[in-house]
Amino acid sequence: MSYYDLRDAMAQPGCPVCRLKADAAARHLDGLLWESVNDAGVRQDIRQARGFCQQHAWLLVEGGSSLGAVIIMRDVMQSVLRVLEAARFQDATSSLRQRAQDMLSPGHGAPANTDLVAELGPQAPCPACAQAETIEGILISTLAECLVGENGLLEAYRASEGLCLQHLRQVLAQAHAPALFEILIDVQRTVWERLIGQLSEIVRKEDYRFRHEPRGEEIGASLRAIAVLSGPRVTTK
User: Fold this and answer.
1) pLDDT tens-digit profile of 98-133?
2) Which of 122, 124, 183, 193 is the most exposed place for a label (fewest CB within 10 A)?
3) What is the C-alpha separation between 197 and 21, in angstroms, rounded?
4) pTM across the whole model
């Protein structure tokens, strides 16, 4: 299905891999709330991860807090509370070199309570991130394998807004054939030159001599450029 997912996503704005990766995380969280809240293995994975990363934790309750989200967060909070209840003070362990550095730079000594600090942190990846990254890998491999050739994705790719910088790098790492390499470079050059032209048009129309000109396809170009360089905007309520 990744072939058809990519083809359809290429008809939408932005990097198709970013779009599908975000969809995968959202579906994972939706399935969790509806089907897996009481799954012991799933709950253990979430406890080990100390919940979810900031992005996916807020996505979990984007439509409003649900009973499933409450159960999950209570479970994780109870887990970290047990760690606190068993905690014992741990002094900084300083070597002779470290003590000398402490004397030269007061206030920047060896950290204390290192075991507790480590135990309170995630012991496993965010489950939603892990699922999204699995799907991301499949999509990148599919794109590299299916871009050229009969019934390939090349025409859809040419008509799209291209890949973001991160996903272009990942596909290039799998571009073992010179033909695939040349196509990736050619399409991305065309897409990015068009975007740079739109950014330049924004700058030009800020000149008082041209401010009367109506805005055109350059509208939103700055946001598109940020998405290309840094990834899509995280939207949460």
Assistant:
1) 566 666 666 666 778 888 999 999 999 999 999 999
2) 193
3) 28
4) 0.84
